[in-house]
Amino acid sequence: MVKVYVHDNKSSIDYRESHNSGTELSLDELAKLGVIYKYCATEAEVDEIAKERQYRNRDVVDIHQGSFKNETDFNEKLAMFYKEHLHEDEEIRYCLEGTGYFDVRDASTPENWVRCRVEPGDLLILPPGIYHRFTLTSGNHIKALRLFKDEPKWQAINRSTQADALPVRKDYVSRINQY
Ligand SMILES: CSCCC(=O)/C(O)=C/O
Ligand SMILES: [Fe+2]
Prior knowledge:
globular; five-stranded antiparallel sheet; 12 strands; Jelly Rolls; binds fe (ii) ion; alpha+beta; binds the ligand CSCCC(=O)/C(O)=C/O; 5 helices
């Protein structure tokens, strides 16, 4: 079951550590950021969500040191996932094995990150336009299903003034401010 809390923002400590500030958030509070959480005991439940939301494609990523040629490539991939970014589409991820952290920006206190620790069975839906990042936990392994509406696509737009000005970002901010 996912655990959601405010990140302690201590950048001197490895980002795969828990960084739990001690302030926990409920799933309702997470939903106010536009992030939907579901527990799916089986992949059949994921199939239902995919069907409802018209997702026709998927792939599996297995992220651990052994999936990369060397440690440098592994670290580069982690650094890429950890760069604050947004997507123009929803991001749906389902944890099959291992654990990971999805950090999303808190709309009301934008300097804060809300950390979601996922484990097997956890499915997260991040809305288009939300700034976020991903990392492994200190367990250094996650196997996850990534759902795509059509062809597999992973286009990250790193945080910048240009990204702030995108319609998808403006739509997200105005939707969140209505809560
Ligand atoms: C556990 S899925 C790998 C990370 C990813 O796909 C993503 O989009 C991060 O933002
Ligand atoms: Fe992403």
